[in-house]
Amino acid sequence: NVLHLAAIQGNTALVEVILHALRAEERVLYANTPDQNGYTAVDYALLGGFNTTSKKILELGGQEESLAPTQPVELFLNHAKYTMGVVHVELQDKGGWNYSDSG
After folding, report:
1. Tell me: the pLDDT tens digits for 19-76?
2. What is the C-alpha to C-alpha distance for residues 21 and 74, in angstroms, rounded to an integer?
3. What is the pTM of this model?
4. Contacts of 37 (CB under 8 A, 6+ apart)
5. What's residue 57's pLDDT?
6. How many C-beta atoms lie closer than 10 Å to residue 24's C-beta?
7. Alpha-carbon distance 1 to 17, whole Å?
8. Cα–Cα distance for residue pair 5/15, rounded to 1 Å
9. At 98, is the secondary structure helix, strand, or coil?
10. Which of 50, 60, 66, 93 has the maximum number of C-beta atoms within 10 A of its C-beta?
11. Is residue 62 packed enough to be buried (19+ CB in 10 Å), middle (13-18) or exposed (0-12)?
12. Phi/psi zone of residue 75: left (φ > 0), alpha (ψ -120 to 50 degrees), beta?
């Protein structure tokens, strides 16, 4: 969500605008909503070293307990096959324009 983006950028002013635009109960819910990878806005602010931003989110309803995964997130699983612990990736990109694709 947009709060995650503001936290990733360390944009404390935008964090304030977003969270002050919400009612108190909505603010807490929004501030603590994890993204698809399990990270909250506070997690992203802390990972980026934006202490002022993370403190502002906490002040306005964020929780200190991280919901972030403890293991790395695996990306692009749809294109990978696993065989005995080895990842095999099937490339599906043609690598650019192809005259036969242009009609």
Report:
1. 999 998 899 999 999 988 888 999 999 988 999 999 999 999 998 877 676 666 565 5
2. 34
3. 0.66
4. 69, 73
5. 95
6. 10
7. 14
8. 9
9. coil
10. 50
11. buried
12. beta
Distance CA 82, CA 100 (A): 33
**CB neighbour list of residue 12: distance below 8 Å, 6 or more residues apart:** 50, 52, 53, 56
Between residues 3 and 87, which one has the greater pLDDT?
A: 3
One-letter amino acid of 89 = V
pLDDT of residue 65: 79
Does residue 88 register a pLDDT over 70? no
Q: Which two tokens stand for residue 12?
A: 């404390």
Alpha carbons within 13 A on the beta-carbon side of 11 = 12
Look at residue 62 and give its three-state secondary structure: coil
Residue recorded with tokens 């964090």: 15
CA distance to 4, 18, 100, per residue, from 30 (Å):
10, 10, 48
Tokens found for residue 68? 């972030």
